[in-house]
């Protein structure tokens, strides 16, 4: 008899939990270049229905068995088609949310299940019609014998996804956007570059879309800027990461890649938005060339970053970062310091460190493109002496500055020059080289 009573009690408790209303605990709004996003933070999973109405334009959302526990009075929907939000309780326990709209817009919605520290969320996107701001910014590269080198700068995280949060509630998404903006200014000061910012404000861009935007811009290089975090607040130092053809080069690289790849779950990307990265893409010949270039730029970056920051790793680490999986664009992810470290968090939010880090990243990338410019660019013409101020290289010989992580055999392989020719041309008896040393690369 006791057994039967316990089973009945368990069933009653389960039924009570099932009928208990969920709560909307918070409502947030984000404006992106091509859409407006509203996020409902929920106490549990829900079901919902969308209804679009015209004359006047409205979007109605009925969320079943839900109560509103958030204050929506202070929400502002600037520069968006949303002009207001109203709500009411419906018979049967449903919550009705009404968005008043200034125009007819395409709408999509999806639910994100609770994961880790994140609650269940309902995401509603109002998609702009016509040409987006991103489409206006990103233009095709003009075919020219002296075109600009296109640099795609990606400030990590954004919008719903703050990234790592350090002491004093300093957010990764804010500091890396500042560094990215200062890096953009550096490139814009120098003739021969054009910059594409993957995000221009505080909104989230899916990892696949970040790569797509760089490809649409026909970028010559993609750099994604981040700030690291670890459970031990003493962890410190900056680092550079490239994509790996195989496994991660270290346990920390593997963990970091997994954390960065989970950003879509935080930032709010529906499963239908996730692309399936083809396994074969890593065997593509263009990927091999892109990885070689990525590692070369990464070595240059480490040399520059070591001048202003302790390096967490003195080599370019590699792992399966989703944001770097573009087969034809050299790409790097730069961790500018540990935001979980109180000392480095203080530096990361300072304008002087942000400027110095932006300069270090710029110098590393700029040195690479000055030494190995794409053949149809201004820098290639400058190197050939085809443009004012340019000096022709001597008999096809190019100069190279040794960066941290370089080896003589690696440089020979990169430039397709026999190691013995490289040693003989530079009068080197062995393979010893030092950071900052200048050597000449003979014509292959």
TrEMBL record:
One of its GO terms (molecular function) is N-acetylmuramoyl-L-alanine amidase activity. Residues 398-441 form the LysM domain. InterPro entries: AMIN_dom (IPR021731), LysM (IPR018392), LysM_dom_sf (IPR036779), MurNAc-LAA_cat (IPR002508), N-acetylmuramoyl_amidase_3 (IPR050695). SMART domains: Ami_3, LysM. One of its GO terms (cellular component) is outer membrane-bounded periplasmic space. It is an enzyme of class 3 (hydrolase). GO terms for biological process: cell wall organization; peptidoglycan catabolic process. It catalyses: Hydrolyzes the link between N-acetylmuramoyl residues and L-amino acid residues in certain cell-wall glycopeptides. Its EC number is 3.5.1.28. Its main location: periplasm. Belongs to the N-acetylmuramoyl-L-alanine amidase 3 family. PANTHER family: N-ACETYLMURAMOYL-L-ALANINE AMIDASE, N-ACETYLMURAMOYL-L-ALANINE AMIDASE AMIC. This is N-acetylmuramoyl-L-alanine amidase AmiC. It comes from Zhongshania antarctica. The lineage of its organism: Bacteria, Pseudomonadati, Pseudomonadota, Gammaproteobacteria, Cellvibrionales.
